[in-house]
């Protein structure tokens, strides 16, 4: 590593599950011929900087790993990125490269483009505090520890405290250990949110809490072993349904296509307020969780424990 710790910008699940598959199959094995970092919109602030050091030196490097957060080359260049939904685009040879732009941002808008030797291009749209783009130099000894690279996922890449998509990582014991570290926190904060174990979108995590009959503001120490078991099982089941595409969340794919939801859960957002609970039909209510943030729940299914 070049001394700087790799920062993480982890895409929220379930969208990340779908994007990751596409990015992996589109980018791995491609050789970079050229890159470009372009400011396309001038705002009041600059979030990303006018230059990304080293980004113009990636030609002749081959992508050996790519997911929804990282692109790694055979020479140890690592791009860590985060874009809003709709911010990633892949163009095959001959397609018009016309990536999405923002005009609403207070800051500059940038496009980071990678051009490949087969004529394809991958573009990341970056603007505002919610986007992220960093380039690191990883020691190639970490990539090829035994002379060859066989890692499915490199150990130096940051992960969520618990990778909920990995059955080996997401175990009941690991989950209860995690919860026991912060017994005074609301259960929603220990599961999703910035401090949570899983990078699951709050609206989806709140749906899991609904089906588990646990109020999002229940203090973690008040949750029984039986409830923890139900929460664990329901989380695993739902994530596996997304992984197996039994359920699909609405998202824009890297080809710019809007993918319609399929068997999607009731996303517990402000748009669910007043709608009937999918379990019992009681209108969904809201509760404030931290400054400015609300969580949505069913007042009949999810009784808060005092
Ligand atoms: Zn209900």
Assign an overall shape: globular
Rg, rounded, reads: 21 Å
Query: How much of the polypeptide forms β-strand, as a percent range?
Result: 15-25%
Low-confidence stretches: none
* CATH architecture field of the largest domain: Alpha-Beta Barrel
Gap from first CA to last CA: 48 Å
Task: List all distinct small molecules, including ions and cofactors, that are bound in this structure.
Answer: zinc ion
Q: Please give the domain count.
A: 2
On the 0 to 100 scale, the average pLDDT is 92
Give a written overview of the molecule.
This protein has 306 residues and is an alpha+beta fold. It has two domains: 15-143, Alpha-Beta Barrel (N-terminal domain of MutM-like DNA repair proteins); 172-297, Helicase, Ruva Protein, domain 3. 20% of the residues lie in helices and 21% in strands. The protein has six helices and twelve strands. Strands 1-6-7-5 form a four-stranded antiparallel sheet, with helices on one face. It is globular and about 60 Å long. The relative contact order is 0.14. The model has no long low-confidence stretch (mean pLDDT 92). Zinc ion binds next to loops.
Would you summarize the structure shown here?
By secondary structure, the chain is α+β, with helices and mostly antiparallel strands. The protein has helices spanning 15-27, 140-143, 172-181, 187-191, 202-211, 225-243; strands spanning 32-41, 63-66, 70-73, 77-82, 88-91, 109-116, 121-127, 132-137, 251-252, 258-259, 285-290, 293-297. Helix content is 20%, strand content 21%.
């Amino acid at each position: 590593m070049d001394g700087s710790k790799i920062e993480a910008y982890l895409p929220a699940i379930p969208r990340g599950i779908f994007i990751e598959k596409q990015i992996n199959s589109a980018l791995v094995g491609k050789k970079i011929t050229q890159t470009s970092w372009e400011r396309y919109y001038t705002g009041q602030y600059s979030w990303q900087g006018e230059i990304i050091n080293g980004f113009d030196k990636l030609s002749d490097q081959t992508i050996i790993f790519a997911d929804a957060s990282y692109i790694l080359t055979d020479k140890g260049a690592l791009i860590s990125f985060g874009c809003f939904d709709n911010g990633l685009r892949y163009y095959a040879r001959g397609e018009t490269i016309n990536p999405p732009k923002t005009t609403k941002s207070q800051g500059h808008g940038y496009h980071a483009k990678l051009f490949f030797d087969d004529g394809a291009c991958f573009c990341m749209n970056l603007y505002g505090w919610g986007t992220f783009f960093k380039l690191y130099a990883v020691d190639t000894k970490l990539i090829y520890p035994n002379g060859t690279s066989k890692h499915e996922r490199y150990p130096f890449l940051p992960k969520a405290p618990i990778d909920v998509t990995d059955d080996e990582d997401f175990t009941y014991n690991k989950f209860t250990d995690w919860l026991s570290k912060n017994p005074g926190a609301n259960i929603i904060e220990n599961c999703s949110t910035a401090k949570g174990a899983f990078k699951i979108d709050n609206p989806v995590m709140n749906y899991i809490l609904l089906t588990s009959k646990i109020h999002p503001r229940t203090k973690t120490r008040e949750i029984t072993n039986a409830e923890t078991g139900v929460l664990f099982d329901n989380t695993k089941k739902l994530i596996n349904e997304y992984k197996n595409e039994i359920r699909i969340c609405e998202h824009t794919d890297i080809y710019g296509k809007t993918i319609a939801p399929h068997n999607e859960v009731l996303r517990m957002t402000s748009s669910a307020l007043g709608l009937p609970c999918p379990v019992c039909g009681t209108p969904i209510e809201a509760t404030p969780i931290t400054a400015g943030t609300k969580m949505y729940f069913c007042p009949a299914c999810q009784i808060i424990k005092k």
